[in-house]
Description:
Layout: E1 2-10, H1 17-29, E2 34-39, E3 46-52, H2 55-66, E4 72-79
Antiparallel strand pairs: 1-3, 1-4, 2-3
Amino acid sequence: MVKAIVLMTLVGGTGERLEWSKETKDQLKQIAGVDEVYGVFGRYDLVAMVEAETWEKLTILVTDKIRSVPGVQTSETLTIVF
């Protein structure tokens, strides 16, 4: 099993940003392999704890599924090694 932390920045207007973030968070939580999603303050807007069976499936999870969610502008993946 491969586990990782995905750090994300989101798009959205300043007045709508919090609501937009909550909608994006809810969509991310529906993806198989996404265990937890947290809204955070700082350089990133959302942090997700993810899990996949293989490195290839982790790549598909991040690039094809997470990055395709409306609102996700950028992501950085930190793989958990110990």
